């Protein structure tokens, strides 16, 4: 009998990556007033989301005609999502840092919350007609459970204010624990980051930033495993062993 030697199967990285590093020295009381501190960001994001919506419609027709997402619009829209994630991470989407988020669309390498999307050279003209509503429906149901039903009504990945879904409940619990113990439960943080990662993958897909369907997978932890997913050992002769997943 031939030896059952493992072969290496590489999993391609998902083009949308979300990271968050939990600060070890969170202040116990600051989360009580972060809603007030974030008012300037909320005001700016209101207008950024309006521009995001308009430019996404422009990108829709550009993709339909040219099969390309205009690079300048892509950079702006990913910048809005990046801004929203930094605000959510500082605020009530995670409470993962006390470092105030910068007023910038561009990536800030040393900020503890980061969001990146690989620019697609070409996009499907056919998918652009259906992926943001029909194909994404199963994900919308999951994400609605994570962040509350308002997401499906048009909040996209914007989750900067208080939420009433599972993310909001867990962040509230972590905040109470932080208040009394000075510690943020690591297990809850990993779970919250996994749900946020799911939300932003779906939001990016619905915003036409990628054609790659979001995985039905809860990738836990602050570091996105898609950034450096180790190869999977699979025995020779196993189903699918000759294909890349």
Automatic annotation (TrEMBL):
UniProt keyword Acetylation, yes or no: no
Chain spans, region Disordered: 225-245
InterPro entries per UniProt: DUF4389 (IPR025498)
Key words of the record: Membrane, Transmembrane, Transmembrane helix
Segments crossing the lipid bilayer: 39-65, 132-151, 163-181
Origin: domain of life: Bacteria
Keyword Membrane: yes
Cited Pfam families: DUF4389
Name of the protein in question: DUF4389 domain-containing protein
Native source species: Natronosporangium hydrolyticum
């Amino acid at each position: 009998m031939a030896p059952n030697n493992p072969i290496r199967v590489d999993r391609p990285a998902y083009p949308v990556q979300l990271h968050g590093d939990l600060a070890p020295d969170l202040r116990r009381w600051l989360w009580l007033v972060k809603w007030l501190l974030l008012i300037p960001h909320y005001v700016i994001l209101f207008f950024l989301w309006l521009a995001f919506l308009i430019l996404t419609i422009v990108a829709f027709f550009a993709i339909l005609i040219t099969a390309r997402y205009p690079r300048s619009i892509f950079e702006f829209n990913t910048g809005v999502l990046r801004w929203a994630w930094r605000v959510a991470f500082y605020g009530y989407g995670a409470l993962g840092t006390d470092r105030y988020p910068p007023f910038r669309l561009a990536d800030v390498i040393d900020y503890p919350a980061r969001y990146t999307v690989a620019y697609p050279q070409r996009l499907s003209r056919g998918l652009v007609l259906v992926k943001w509503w029909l194909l994404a429906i199963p994900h919308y149901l999951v994400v609605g459970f994570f962040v509350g039903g308002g997401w499906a009504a048009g909040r996209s990945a914007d989750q900067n204010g208080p939420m009433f879904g599972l993310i909001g409940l867990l962040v509230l619990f972590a905040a109470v624990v932080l208040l009394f113990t000075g510690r943020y439960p690591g297990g809850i943080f990993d779970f919250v980051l996994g749900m946020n990662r799911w939300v932003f993958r779906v939001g990016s897909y619905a915003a036409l930033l990628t054609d790659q369907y979001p995985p039905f997978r809860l990738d836990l932890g602050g570091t996105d495993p898609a950034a450096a997913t180790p190869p999977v050992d699979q025995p020779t002769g196993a189903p699918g062993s000759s294909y890349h997943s």
